[in-house]
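We were asked to recover a plausible sequence for a given structure. The inputs and outputs are reproduced exactly as logged, with field labels preserved.

PROBLEM: sequence recovery
POSITIONS: 67
GIVEN STRUCTURE:
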Protein backbone atom coordinates (compact mmCIF):
# COMPACT_ATOMS: atom_id res chain seq x y z
CA UNK A 1 0.00 0.00 0.00
CA UNK A 2 1.28 3.39 -0.96
CA UNK A 3 0.70 6.01 1.72
CA UNK A 4 0.20 9.40 0.16
CA UNK A 5 2.01 11.94 2.29
CA UNK A 6 0.76 14.70 0.03
CA UNK A 7 -2.82 13.96 1.15
CA UNK A 8 -1.81 14.62 4.75
CA UNK A 9 -0.22 17.93 3.77
CA UNK A 10 -3.32 18.87 1.75
CA UNK A 11 -5.58 18.21 4.73
CA UNK A 12 -3.29 20.20 7.02
CA UNK A 13 -3.13 23.04 4.51
CA UNK A 14 -6.90 23.17 4.20
CA UNK A 15 -7.17 23.25 7.99
CA UNK A 16 -4.71 26.13 8.29
CA UNK A 17 -6.38 28.16 5.53
CA UNK A 18 -9.86 27.59 6.96
CA UNK A 19 -8.66 28.62 10.42
CA UNK A 20 -7.15 31.82 9.04
CA UNK A 21 -10.27 32.71 7.06
CA UNK A 22 -12.45 31.91 10.08
CA UNK A 23 -10.37 34.21 12.29
CA UNK A 24 -10.43 37.07 9.79
CA UNK A 25 -14.18 36.82 9.27
CA UNK A 26 -14.81 36.62 13.00
CA UNK A 27 -12.70 39.74 13.58
CA UNK A 28 -14.73 41.54 10.91
CA UNK A 29 -17.92 40.66 12.77
CA UNK A 30 -19.22 38.15 10.24
CA UNK A 31 -19.55 35.13 12.51
CA UNK A 32 -22.18 33.47 10.35
CA UNK A 33 -19.93 33.41 7.31
CA UNK A 34 -17.02 32.26 9.50
CA UNK A 35 -19.03 29.26 10.66
CA UNK A 36 -20.05 28.43 7.09
CA UNK A 37 -16.41 28.51 5.98
CA UNK A 38 -15.56 26.10 8.79
CA UNK A 39 -18.39 23.74 7.85
CA UNK A 40 -17.44 23.78 4.17
CA UNK A 41 -13.79 23.12 5.03
CA UNK A 42 -14.84 20.22 7.24
CA UNK A 43 -16.96 18.70 4.47
CA UNK A 44 -14.10 18.97 1.96
CA UNK A 45 -11.69 17.25 4.34
CA UNK A 46 -14.32 14.64 5.17
CA UNK A 47 -14.67 13.73 1.48
CA UNK A 48 -10.89 13.45 1.18
CA UNK A 49 -10.71 11.14 4.20
CA UNK A 50 -13.59 8.99 2.94
CA UNK A 51 -11.80 8.57 -0.40
CA UNK A 52 -8.60 7.53 1.37
CA UNK A 53 -10.51 5.09 3.59
CA UNK A 54 -12.13 3.60 0.50
CA UNK A 55 -8.68 2.96 -0.97
CA UNK A 56 -7.56 1.42 2.33
CA UNK A 57 -10.53 -0.97 2.50
CA UNK A 58 -10.04 -2.00 -1.12
CA UNK A 59 -6.43 -2.84 -0.34
CA UNK A 60 -7.41 -4.82 2.76
CA UNK A 61 -10.08 -6.70 0.83
CA UNK A 62 -7.60 -7.49 -1.94
CA UNK A 63 -5.10 -8.84 0.59
CA UNK A 64 -7.50 -11.06 2.53
CA UNK A 65 -9.59 -12.28 -0.40
CA UNK A 66 -6.51 -12.94 -2.58
CA UNK A 67 -7.83 -11.01 -5.55
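RECOVERED SEQUENCE:
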Amino acid sequence: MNIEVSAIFQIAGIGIIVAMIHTVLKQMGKEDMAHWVTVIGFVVVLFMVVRLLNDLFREIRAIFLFQ
